[in-house]
TrEMBL record:
It comes from the Eukaryota. Residues 34-70 form the Leucine-rich repeat-containing N-terminal plant-type domain. It is a single-pass type I membrane protein; Peripheral membrane protein. It comes from Cicer arietinum. This is Receptor-like protein EIX2.
Length: 1017
């Protein structure tokens, strides 16, 4: 009986289990309705592209992309949408997911604030919001997340924290990353970190941490067991080292790069014997690598680059002997080691990456280095190597990346040596002195993926035979060579290029048809390539992948398409297109989202109306200058929120300047010159980053705005010449400390020149830091550790100097000039203007200025161009003119100057027209002589005789004055002073008696002498 009962009970249990499993299976994918609605509300706040999160529909939310649920309760426990590249905001509906244990939304484009209610998610173990654009203060409510083990808020560049005290409540926290979060206002951050005993990984890179003082270093909590510490890219000094060294005895990863560590590497590091990763790069460390590095036997990666380390190269390498079997990465680039040759690295059996750039290494690349047993990457950038030494059989080498750029390799392309390295995937020989033709032996490098031979002296032809074996090639750069591409129109490349740079090579005159086979082409530079064709239709079908396109300086004709295909790249907002200096025509099309667009020096017509309907939130650089564009500008510029440089110069644009220009808070440079704009300048008070304003040669009117001097502190160039401005020069311009170029010429400005111009620091201080107008519109990365910068350009400006208009580009940031010519200025030239010792050009011509030329004008020793013509200046030219040794252009004509022109080689070299219209001037180089310089020709025989002649008009005057002073100085005194007169005559009486007696005695003696001689005879 009991056995039957037992069997019965077992059957009942089995039936119940089956029913339970069936029920669980039936309900397994059913999520909680409240949480499903919260997820949908969260999705509504996101900005999604096309098919993103398409699975988020229906009732089964546990099957949605990125969602995980608990198998029993069906609550959402995991939300992982990392790197899905969506925008929008982090909606507070996320707080409805009360059972979340992991929330990962990293590397998207989320904006706005972190909801305070996120602190209510008490079951959270992992929170990762890194790599977004969140711009809030870190909510202190995060302190409620007592179960949190991982917190990553790093790389939200606009996030800030005022204190870190809330961290002390996260007792289970083991991983903390606040990299690039603004912590500049956090004072006691060290104490806050010390209160997290479970912390093993800490990342505070780029947080703006400042120098700490010994008093601010807290008592250490010995329970802290950090293994990874990153404090790189801050402003820390060596005072942080005691805390770093003592905070943990088990550190394996330490990054203190890009700080202000000075002097030698401290000896306290000798106890860090567990270090596997050490980065001290980009500091100011001096001396040699210390001896105690011999104890760091577990080192795998060591970065000491960009310091001031010195001593013998070989000695420093010997200090790493204990790690020679485990060291994988070594970077010693950019230091000051003594030896100029590469030491022996043969004992480093595990070395995979070696960086020895900028070490002044000369000679040839030794074969021993190429054939290190495990070396994969070798970087010898910026040295003085002139050759490569590779043994006959290079097949034993596994090196895949070889960078010898910026050296002195010369002669023919050394591919006969390098092509023996069969494993090469990346070869960079750019910026050398290689010559000769492009060799077919390059095809032997069948594994080659990236080849950079730019900026050499190579010539010859690239044909199909050379490229036929390079099936893995993705990058080819032959820029700045004399190479011609000879590829047939029906040639099908065996590779898929991602980057092609062939600027200054010959690809034309026809547009290269073989480009149509590169469906994934992102970077294309075929500028200066001799193309005089139109764009084929297929090219624009391929444009959806193009991020960087440069076809400038060709003769490409025809019109652009009316629209472009949507881009299929996640970095569409970084796209740069450059069409400058071609023969393109027609109206402007509707462009896709771009970072930079250059269309200058073409023949485009029509208006800019389509620009207002395009999506240009990311547009940073826009150059439409030197075209035939017309009409009025629409008031839609508030949509261009990222714009830095705007150039609409040299068109036929008219009407008023739109008020919405004043909303361009990021703008740095505006060129509207040589158009037909009218009205007044709209207020640009929000454009505090402006460095250059050029509204010249229009029909603008009104007065020079006062707000320019109050709200534009960075202004360097102000050019409004050729307009109809009236009124005085506002004294507020003197507040512009950075002002280097001021051009108010050809207006109707009245009043006097402000005395306060001497307050402009950039014009009074020769040591003032001057920055050029250099921009990078596009940066591309193609392999790890190497950064390739494309789209570099200089802003430019036309300045009137030395009597002509000249365009300044690379040197614009160095120019200093003031041009107030062709106005109605009155009064005198202020003496204070001579304090502008950094001024190169000064033009005050065609005004109504009076008075004298400032006597201290010679203090302006940097002057190269001076024009004071067509005024009413009078008086003599100051003698200090002779101190202006750099002066190469001067015009003082048509004034009322008089007197002698100061003598100096510089002044005498000018043409007589320089002084025309000043009837009172005399001397060289004028034909008339000054009074006192007139010498009769018959008395002048040669230069030596003229120099020795004493009897001149000045001599007679001096003689007469000397006689007058001497005579009356003596005789007048004797007449007035009776006592002096008695003494004077008594002196002469005594003197006459003495002379008489002396003569008598002398005569008597002589007589006696003659008598003796007569007696002897």
């Amino acid at each position: 009986m009991p056995r039957r009962v037992l069997h019965f009970l077992i059957c009942v249990v089995e039936i119940l289990c089956i029913n339970l499993l069936c029920a669980q299976s039936f309900h397994m994918n059913n999520c909680v309705e409240k949480e499903r609605k919260a997820l949908l509300k969260f999705k509504e706040a996101l900005i999604l592209e096309r098919d993103k999160l398409n699975s988020w529909k229906g009732e089964e939310c546990c099957k949605w992309e990125g969602i995980s649920c608990d198998n029993l309760t069906h609550h959402v426990t995991n939300l992982d949408l990392n790197a899905k590249i969506f925008g929008g905001k982090l909606d507070s509906s996320i707080c409805e997911l009360q059972h979340l244990t992991s929330l990962n939304l990293c590397y998207n484009n989320l904006e706005g604030k972190i909801p305070k209610c996120i602190g209510s998610l008490g079951e959270l173990i992992e929170l990762d919001l890194s790599g977004n654009n969140l711009n809030s203060v870190i909510p202190p409510s995060l302190s409620n997340l007592s179960n949190l083990q991982t917190l990553n808020l790093g790389y939200n560049d606009h996030m800030i924290a005022y204190d870190l005290e809330w961290l002390s409540h996260l007792s289970n926290l083991s991983y903390l990353d606040l990299s690039n979060v603004n912590l500049t206002l956090v004072i006691d951050w060290l104490s806050s970190i010390n209160k997290i005993p479970s912390l093993t990984e800490l990342y505070l890179s780029g947080c703006g941490l400042h120098q700490v003082t010994p008093k601010s270093i807290p008592q250490l909590n010995i329970s802290i067991s950090l293994k990874s510490l990153n404090l790189g890219h801050n402003s820390l000094t060596s005072s942080i080292l005691p805390w770093v060294i003592n905070v943990s005895k088990v550190l394996t990863h330490l990054d203190l790069s890009s700080n202000f560590l000075q002097q030698s590497i401290p000896y306290d590091f000798e106890n860090m014997i567990f270090l596997q990763y050490l980065d001290l790069s980009y500091n100011e460390l001096q001396g040699r690598i210390p001896n105690y590095f011999r104890n760091m036997c577990q080192l795998q990666e060591l970065y000491l680059n960009t310091n001031k380390l010195s001593g013998q190269f070989s000695y420093n390498i010997q200090q790493l002997c204990c790690a020679q079997n485990g060291l994988v990465v070594l970077d010693l680039s950019n230091n000051s080691f003594n030896e100029g040759t590469i030491p022996d690295f043969s004992c480093f059996s595990s070395l995979k990456e070696l960086y020895l750039g900028s070490l002044n290494i000369f000679g040839t690349l030794p074969k021993s280095l190429i054939h290190l047993h495990s070396l994969v990457s070798l970087y010898l950038v910026d040295n003085k190597l002139n050759g490569v030494d590779i043994i006959d059989d290079g097949s034993l080498s596994i090196i895949s990346i070889l960078d010898l750029s910026f050296n002195q390799l010369n002669g023919s392309l050394p591919l006969f040596e390098i092509t023996k390295l069969k494993s090469l995937e990346t070869l960079d020989l750019s910026h050398n002195q290689l010559s000769g033709s492009f060799s077919q032996t390059i095809g032997h490098l069948s594994n080659l993926m990236a080849l950079d031979l730019s900026s050499n002296k190579l010539n010859g032809v690239i044909n199909e035979a050379i490229l036929s074996n390079l099936s893995k090639l993705t990058l080819l750069d032959v820029t700045q060579n004399s190479i011609s591409f000879n590829l047939s129109s029906d040639w099908v490349p065996p590779f898929e290029l991602n980057t092609l740079h062939a600027s200054s090579c010959t690809l034309g005159p026809k547009f290269p048809i073989w480009l149509k086979h590169f469906e994934d082409l992102e970077d294309l530079d075929i500028s200066y390539s001799g193309i005089s064709d139109s764009f084929p239709e297929w090219f624009w079908n391929r444009s959806s992948s193009l991020l960087y396109l440069n076809v400038s300086h060709n003769k490409i004709n025809g019109a652009l398409p009316k629209s472009f295909p949507s881009i299929n790249n996640r970095f569409a907002w970084e796209r740069v297109w450059d069409f400058r200096f071609n023969d393109l025509n027609g109206s402007l099309p509707r462009f896709p989202e771009l970072r930079a667009l250059f269309l200058s020096n073409n023949m485009f017509t029509g208006s800019l109306s389509l620009f207002c309907t395009s999506s240009f939130q990311s547009l940073t650089f826009l150059d439409l200058s030197s075209n035939l564009l017309g009409g009025k500008l629409s008031d839609c510029w508030k949509n261009f929120e990222s714009l830095k440089v705007l150039n609409l110069a040299k068109n036929n644009l008219s009407g008023k300047i739109p008020n919405s220009f004043g909303t361009l808070e990021q703008i740095e440079s505006i060129h509207l010159n040589n158009n037909k704009f009218c009205g007044e300048i709209p207020p640009l008070t929000l454009c505090s980053n402006l460095r250059l304003i050029d509204f010249g040669d229009n029909s603008l009117q009104g007065t020079i705005p006062l707000w320019i001097g109050h709200y534009l502190p960075q202004l360097t160039v102000l050019r409004v010449r050729g307009n109809k401005f009236q009124g005085n020069i506002p004294a507020s311009l003197c507040n512009l400390s950075f002002l280097q170029v001021l051009d108010l010429s050809k207006n109707n400005i009245t009043g006097e020149i402000p005395q306060c111009f001497s307050n402009i620091v950039a014009l009074t201080n020769l040591k003032f830091p001057r920055n050029n107008f250099h921009y990078f519109s596009y940066i591309s990365f193609f392999i790890e550790h190497e950064e390739y910068e494309f789209g570099s350009f200089y802003d430019k400006e036309i300045l009137a100097l030395k009597g002509s208009n000249r365009e300044y580009e690379k040197n614009l940031g160095l120019m200093t000039s003031i041009d107030l010519s062709c106005n109605h200025l009155t009064g005198e030239i202020p003496q204070s203007i001579t304090k502008l010792v950094a001024l190169v050009g000064l033009n005050l011509s065609w005004n109504n200025l009076t008075g004298l030329i400032p006597s201290n004008i010679g203090h302006m020793k940097m002057l190269e161009s001076l024009d004071l013509s067509r005024n009413h200046l009078y008086g003599r030219m100051p003698t200090s003119f002779s101190n202006l040794t750099f002066l190469s252009s001067m015009n003082l004509s048509f004034n009322n100057l008089e007197g002698k022109i100061p003598q100096s080689t510089q002044l005498e070299s000018f043409d007589s027209s320089t002084y025309l219209g000043n009837s009172g001037l005399c001397g060289s180089p004028l034909g008339n002589h000054c009074l006192g310089d007139m010498i009769s020709p018959k008395h002048v025989t040669n230069e030596d005789e003229d120099e020795d002649k004493l009897i001149t008009f000045g001599f007679y005057i001096s003689l007469w004055l000397g006689f007058f002073v001497g005579f009356w100085g003596v005789c007048g005194t004797l007449v007035i002073k009776t006592s002096w007169r008695h003494v004077y005559f008594q002196f002469f009486n005594n003197m006459s008696d003495w002379i008489h007696v002396t003569l008598v005695v002398f005569v008597i003696r002589m007589k006696k002498v003659f008598q003796v001689q007569d007696n002897n005879s």
